[in-house]
Give the backbone structure.
Amino acid sequence: MRVVKSQFTNRSWFRRATVGIASFFTILLFSAVGTLLFALKPSQFLSSLLSEEIIYSVKLSVLTASISTLLVMCCSVPTAYALSRFAFPGKTLIKTILGLPMAFPELVMGLALLLLFGQGFLGPFFETFGIKVTFSRLGITVAQFFIAFPYAVKIVYSTFEGINPRYEQVSRSFGYGEFETFRKVTLPMARSGLFASAIITFARCIGSFGAVLILAGGSYMYTEVLPVTLYLNISYGNLEMAITSGILLMIIAFLAILSFERLEGGKL
């Protein structure tokens, strides 16, 4: 009885400690977030929210993030499927390279993209077709794509890894080809993971800043997406507009994470 009681006491102590640590840092994080939420009066927030600059920024952010998300999902699904199902030379190297943007700052990615699409490499080629990537709205989408793509690949890869390949083998045994099996068996089973990936990708695109700022520039009412609005208004000393854009970014992130958790938990 003493041994059992001692074990129960140890488990209770450990449980209280871990829950306490989780609660403490959750409260600390919420306090930091709360300073942003309650920094403005409702009238100040509403006034900034309805301003021409914020409305333009929200529209441009949603438009570019939607286009980028669509492109990312179209590219990440076949990429992740190939990495999860097929063995081929250079697979490990490809996975490593795809994960690089998650490991270094966005500013580095933005500089790399600026050099790639600038005058020294691909810039002149695209400009012969009348396409300008640097310091343009197109540059926003390009930057968002390269920032969000690795995250989408990782989530979709984990989704495909969680699907037993035997289902695909059974489909192939009935005479279905690889593409038919992928379309009729694998994709429906991966639906929740794909939706979750799209949500996180959209949020990641909305929140992209460093790469967007360097590649597309931070031009007022031209390439001004929400993170750029926050940056510009802090530079101008307009805290009301900066805080409002920060709150909008935080709300988008919260909804994205909440949706992701529900999808991952199978509560779609």
